[in-house]
Amino acid sequence: MYYAQRLQVFDDLSLSDIAIERNRLKGRVTLSSPGESHNFTIEFYYPGGERVDERLAPLILTMPLINFTYFTKRLTVNAPISPSDREAIGNLVRINNREVFVNRLCIRRYEFIKKDFLPGDADITEENADGMTEVVADVTREERFDYAGKKDTVSVLSSGGERRASSPTAS
After folding, report:
1. For residue 162, what is the DSSP state?
2. Distance from C-alpha of 133 to C-alpha of 93, rounded to nearest angstrom
3. pLDDT of the residue at 166
C-alpha cells in the first residue's frame, strides 16, 4: 500500500447544487467516508451586484475543496465543465497534493498528525507526493469561453476567496 493511500480518510469530496445569485455564489459540499456522509454549504459573497458566469461558478467553488484532496480518494464536480477545465482541476489537485506532502507532512508542519502517519524515508517518492486523488467531473461544456465582462477591469481570485477589480495601469 502506498503511503498516500494510508492517508486517504475520505472516499469522496463533492460539489453540487450550484446556485448563482446577484451578490452570492453557493453550492453544496458533501464529504463522504465509510459509513457516513456530511453536507455543508459553501458560499462566496461579492459586492457590486455582478453575477458570476455559470461557466466559472463550478471552478470558483471547486478551488477551496482542492486544499483537502491529499486526504481524499475522489474529488467530484457535479456541474458541467469543459475538458480544459477538468484538466486544470486535475493539475491543481496534483500541485496541491505535492505541496501538502512536502511542506505539511515531510517538513512536519501539521502538528495534529500522529507521528505514526508521518512519511518515513522510503515513503518520500514522487508517487506519494502526487497523491492518489481521482477527479470526476461532468465534462459537457464547450471549450470556447468568450468573456463579456468589463474591458477596463481585472479580476483576481485567491485561495482566501478574495475578488478584486481595478483599472489597468500603463507602465
Report:
1. -
2. 8
3. 43
Exposure of 18 by Cβ count < 10 A (0-12 exposed, 13-18 middle, 19+ buried)? buried
* Number of other CB atoms surrounding residue 106 within 10 Å: 16
Long-range contacts of 119-126 (CB under 8 A, 24+ apart): 119/3, 123/3, 125/3
Report which residue type is found at 30.
Answer: T
Please report which residue ranges of the chain form alpha helices under DSSP H. 3-6, 57-66, 83-99, 126-130
Q: CA–CA separation, 70 vs 2, rounded Å?
A: 13
86: nearest Cα among 108, 127, 58 = 58
Q: How many residues does the chain have?
A: 171
CA distance readout (Å), 85 to 9, 59, 75, 113, 143: 26, 8, 14, 33, 8
Q: Are 97 and 129 in contact (CB under 8 A)?
A: yes
CA pair distance 132, 146, nearest whole angstrom: 34
Question: Residue 45 carries which side chain, given as an amino acid letter?
Answer: Y
pLDDT-based confidence at residue 163 (cuts at 50, 70, 90): very low
pLDDT digit string, tens, across residues 50-63: 777 888 899 999 99
SS3 137: strand
Q: How far is CA 162 from the centre of its chain?
A: 15
